[in-house]
Amino acid sequence: MNKDNQFPTTNHTKVDALPSNFKVEDYQAFYHWLNAKPDSEIKIFHDVKRLNINDLRELNIKIIDRLNLQEVISCSTTVSVVLSSHKVLEFGNWEKFFNYDFNISQQTKSLSVIWDFYIKLPNYQLPQRHTLKIRLGSHLKPGEFFQLMWQSEDDFQIEEAAASAVCKIDFISPIISNDLFGIVSGWHEALPKNFYTNNSFKILKRHKGKLEQTIISLFLIAGSLLIAGGLNYLNSRYNLLTSENPKLGYGILAMLLAIVGLYISYIIGKFWSARSERMIEKIQPFFLFTITKGDNNKIDEVKNSNKKVIKKLVREFSFAILIDILAVFGWKLLKYCTGIL
């Protein structure tokens, strides 16, 4: 037997036969004395991490090492893998899972592991059942998630469905439960974060709002320079505002032109920043799993897609800067035309 499923052998507990004159109430009381009602506890992990088969092997070994400290009567493990083709693979033990040929084109959508074990505890005649359940990856599609939001009034249920990882333990012994939660939490914390392909992706995602404001400001600056140069040119040529008796209507007209020009500059900047925002939203993190060949292909696809997005963003931002440079030259040209240098 390998390390992944190794437990110490123990003798099964012998329970004396019940007297034939036992009443139903006596049997119920005896049953609850033998079998305690388990408690449940759930821990949600919000950090998105990356996962491969070796990480699962490491987690299983840690859990087995902890259970080996107890008098384990029996233990079984079930591994379920949900693939992108709506296909579900179920394995009755770790050996089948580790030996499975994952050289397939489908991508891993979610993975669930259930450890189901019976432990002999003090003050209980029969071994008590404990279960440890871990779900990694979201098993809900966007449409199913929104449907859950409409139908469910339980905020925790919605949060659990949306979480990238969930751990649930049904237990009799709180000491064992706390130890297992500690093992799972430490293991999950040590997993690599689902990072972007380079730091520029993380910076763009984090400072997306600032980038949008910068683009709008660049277009407003360009508009202000062109408006100022244009009004200055019109005033010098037609002497609208600097004559001995300037007309109020010309001043109002100039102000309206300035307001309209700035508004148009703002609209153009807003449109351009929205284009950039849509591009930033296309930046994807690495795929959560690296189990199947399809997972690795997806990671390569994401890398190439993100590089293309970065190139487009550089062009968008460069165009906004170019508009400002042209606006400066236009302003200087208008000043030159008016003879004011």
In short:
The chain is α+β, with helices and mostly antiparallel strands.
List keywords for this structure.
341 residues, alpha+beta, two-stranded parallel sheet, 10 helices
Main-sheet strand order equals 1-7-6-5-3-4
β-strand amount: 15-25%
Any idea what the shape is? elongated
The residue-averaged pLDDT reads 78
What would you call the structural class?
alpha+beta
Instruction: Report the biggest beta sheet as strand number plus sense, adding barrel if it closes.
Output: 6 strands, antiparallel
C-alpha termini separation: 90 Å
String of helices and strands? HEEHEEHEEHHEHHHHEH
* Rg from Cα: 34 Å
Number of helices: 10
Strand segment tally: 8
Account of the 3D structure:
- The chain is of the alpha+beta class.
- It is 54% helix and 17% strand.
- The protein contains ten helices and eight strands.
- The protein has helices spanning 24-34, 53-67, 94-99, 142-151, 155-162, 174-190, 199-206, 208-238, 248-281, 293-337; strands spanning 39-45, 51-52, 71-83, 88-91, 108-120, 128-136, 165-171, 289-290.
- It has a six-stranded antiparallel beta sheet.
- A hairpin with a 7-residue loop joins β5 (108-120) and β6 (128-136).
- α8 runs antiparallel to α9 (248-281), α8 (208-238) packs parallel to α10 and α9 packs antiparallel against α10 (293-337).
- The longest helix has 45 residues, at 293-337.
